[in-house]
Amino acid sequence: INGLSLPRISADGQAPSDVYARPFANPGNQPIVAVVIGGLGINATHTKAAIEELPPEVTLSFAPDAGNLQYWVNKAREKGHEVLIEVPMESFEYGRMKMHPQTLLAGDTGERNLPRLEKLLSRASGYFGIINYQGAKFAEDPGAVGPVAGRTQMKFARAAATIDAKLTADDIRTELLGLETLAKENGASMGTGYAFPLTIEIAKDWTKDMQKRGVVLAPASALISVSAKTSQPKRVQTGSLSQAPVNPEG
């Protein structure tokens, strides 16, 4: 479209979300927890650590401005991770931060947002979906969301928490245990985090012996199939609508 290489439905009817999602099976029908670690592709050291140290069931999301984005997507997929691309969406408050030039805007009917989305989606291939970066203002505008959701034929899962909104080991562990509790109550839960070295370290440790605690680590794509069946708390939000507490430099 417009000279851009974009995700599309294949001739046999397969969508990118089908082809590039990590296969997942849960024969015991145990509660599942998904974790998305984002902000990747900006800092090579942190990105490499997330790709190589986290279990392949952890979904990785990449900043659209990442240098060598296709290289990093390929590396992540080689290690078994499924990949998301982050799409900046308008928030209510940016503070000192500048709005990304391709931010999807509230109050737009698609005239500006669709070309912006297409440019973001054309930056790489091999990702199974997108995740919002910020976006509370955009998400509350049905007139702006509608054309974008229609273009992507959107299916979605919701994240219950940003696990490292408070960047201490104890707080991250508490959030992860909270996700386990939600999963046991609802069947599934998902959290998001950023590629801080501390987040990667704690998440890596937390994933050990999960089955002994009665939960299974799942890729984020697995929640798309259960989200319609799962009763989610009202505090759950699409993706992670909050900004990183500091620049994650993932």
Keywords:
single chain, 250 residues, seven-stranded parallel beta sheet, 9 helices, 16% strand, globular, disordered C terminus
Describe, in short, the structure shown.
Helices cover 33% and strands 16% of the residues.
Give an overview in words.
The chain is α/β, with parallel strands linked by helices and 250 residues long. Helices cover 33% and strands 16% of the residues. It is built from 9 helices and 9 strands. The chain has helices spanning 16-19, 44-53, 69-78, 113-121, 136-139, 142-152, 169-186, 197-206, 221-226; strands spanning 32-40, 59-62, 83-88, 129-133, 158-159, 161-162, 188-194, 216-217, 237-238. Strands 1, 2, 3, 4, 6, 7 and 8 form a 7-stranded parallel sheet that branches. Helix 2 links the parallel strand 1 (32-40) and strand 2 (59-62). The protein is globular. Mean pLDDT is 83; it is low at 228-249.
Major sheet size, sense and barrel closure: 7 strands, parallel
Quaternary form: single chain
Q: State the helical fraction.
A: 25-40%
Spatial separation of the terminal alpha carbons: 30 Å
Average pLDDT figure: 83
Order of secondary-structure elements: HEHEHEHEHHEEHEHEHE
Category from helices, strands and their pairing: alpha/beta
- Secondary structure tally, helices: 9
**DSSP, total strands:** 9
SS strand fraction: 15-25%
Topology diagram in text:
Elements (H helix, E strand, L loop, with lengths): L15 H4 L12 E9 L3 H10 L5 E4 L6 H10 L4 E6 L24 H9 L7 E5 L2 H4 L2 H11 L5 E2 L1 E2 L6 H18 L1 E7 L2 H10 L9 E2 L3 H6 L10 E2 L12
Parallel strand pairs: 1-2, 1-7, 1-8, 2-3, 3-4, 6-7
Antiparallel strand pairs: 5-9
